[in-house]
Amino acid sequence: MIQFAINKAYFLQALHTTRRAISSKNAIPILSTIKIEVTSDGIYLTGSNGQISIENSISVSEENAGLLITQPGSILLEANFFINVVSSLPDVTLTFEEIEQYQVLLKSGKSEITLKGKDVEQYPRIQEVDSLTPLLMDTKVLKSIIAETSFAASTQESRPILTGVHFVLSNHKDLKAVATDSHRMSQRQLVLEHSADNFDVVIPSRSLKELSAVFSDDIENLEVFFSANQILFRSETISFYTRLLEGNYPDTNRLLSDSFETEVVFETASLRSAMERSYLISNASQSGTVKLEIINGSVSAHVNSPEVGKVNEDIDVQDVSGSDLVISFNPTYLIDALKALKSETVRVRFISPVRPFTLTPADDSENFIQLITPVRTN
Amino acid sequence: MIQFAINKAYFLQALHTTRRAISSKNAIPILSTIKIEVTSDGIYLTGSNGQISIENSISVSEENAGLLITQPGSILLEANFFINVVSSLPDVTLTFEEIEQYQVLLKSGKSEITLKGKDVEQYPRIQEVDSLTPLLMDTKVLKSIIAETSFAASTQESRPILTGVHFVLSNHKDLKAVATDSHRMSQRQLVLEHSADNFDVVIPSRSLKELSAVFSDDIENLEVFFSANQILFRSETISFYTRLLEGNYPDTNRLLSDSFETEVVFETASLRSAMERSYLISNASQSGTVKLEIINGSVSAHVNSPEVGKVNEDIDVQDVSGSDLVISFNPTYLIDALKALKSETVRVRFISPVRPFTLTPADDSENFIQLITPVRTN
Which pTM does this prediction carry? Predict the structure, then answer.
């Protein structure tokens, strides 16, 4: 019969982090609960949606938590409801006490709220990941790789493997992350500081976006553990598990070519705002494309949606070289690509109106490359 | 063939205000457009959803507008689309030019965007309001009356008259505003500074909420004009028209009684947070009520939702007098009522468990009174 007292704000923060794994509309009703396990060392909170699972610990040695454990035990509580109730409590501390089996009394100030819970035996077990040597990663670097690639993954389930980001470590230190939805591709390469065992995994893009939200920037490093169908990212207090996607990721290297016929260097921000205007008009029509004309060293964008209107726009460029070219594409892909670029200038290289074009930061063409497939127009 | 140049930010602000009257999902397609009329004096923008209409003027004499009119004329443009396009333009100024009939060219920086419009003859006419002597109202006072009453109006169309707020001016200076959805009532009375013609109108609550958003706090005064089925609120640049509700508003005076058996003075904030906790639990069950027990000078709140849990809460009170009482009600009504109260303390007066109870600011029981009907429980 659990009994503990805790600082409400600290408890709430841990509950909110854990809730990120919990979907209230889960097909498996038990996954809408949060698992609360109280031991003599601390409290362990677990949430899961079947794809990702988050385990959060609050230690008795953490001073800010103000945690005082009188009796250990474990229980499941409806996650959203429980978190709303805790956040409504009036006092800075709360006591949590199991008064009957699966019945919890929360006291705070002059409030007493009783909630019904469930037996933890009903909760599915999270498969353990036991890898001997974890990979050590800088949290900020991992989060920036995710921001640079995950948006390019597919959101459609017709080819499930494309909904993930392909992470490959080779030579024990060369990391490559790549995502493609078959219309565009984004690839980041980097050399790890510490060497590690080689791996080749496909992590669901949605899991990676949650991961970025769960680990705040003040957590410097993460340990990464691999198993056959799961991966675990772990900080001192948070363990984030996600399933891996099964299957062979397509070979994206064959999409990249070293040769090109036309090269333009743009200011990232001005190209992006020109594309945003183009998108407003192109989006109103079925075809939804913008036409980029590179002629005699000038670049202009054109959209014609007969029902709605037209865009004609001269775009400032820093440099143009190579052949003249007219190419059409969906401006959304270019907007997304430019959002992912941190550099002020972007180098765009074209082969022909029917071949994919590439984008790289103008100051570093080696490690971050994106690719967009044009649309054939008549 | 219209032609003018204008400061983009100033134009956008006026467009956003006008758009508040425009619903993109209107059953009458022409009402999704904005009417732009350009005269030698300035620009007039009109939006309407059939219930409310907003007319916004930008004068050539307004320096911040940077308005330069070359050719007058008028046109209709799809409101949301046009506003998105204007806000996407790159430069601080834009030129607006009708290049063919119903075809507009917007130029800003190196951008040229062409949009298709429609003939203004298709736009419905706003019925004019010609009253001789307007009522002069302080904008802040009007907005606070709206905040204090409009939430209590019904949102259900089964009794349309109850979806409005009843405004009555008597003795040329005594203003009373009252709203009720038949479960609760909120009434504000005040004496106007300037005398005016008596009136008795029912204004849709939804129109009043828009009105509060349209007139910013830096507009000190509004002129109010009445006609048989419409009312016009006017500032220097904005005219806000709304239809009135037809029919007889029920007599709400008979609901108020001078006698009471029990009186409690609460701190507004602590009563409200106790009710918010009660609501969390009560909301999970069908009945959805909280039981307030006033016994021997102590007040406590109780909710029991067998499926979910219970609340028991002692509530701090400043003063209790009269008979003991146990009364049940929907806590949402009390939460709404307390949100509308600006005073730190609230006086609640009860007659019996089956009669409505009243809330007044503890420091002013005359001018603002709310009433909540209890729920009979067994």
Answer: 0.91
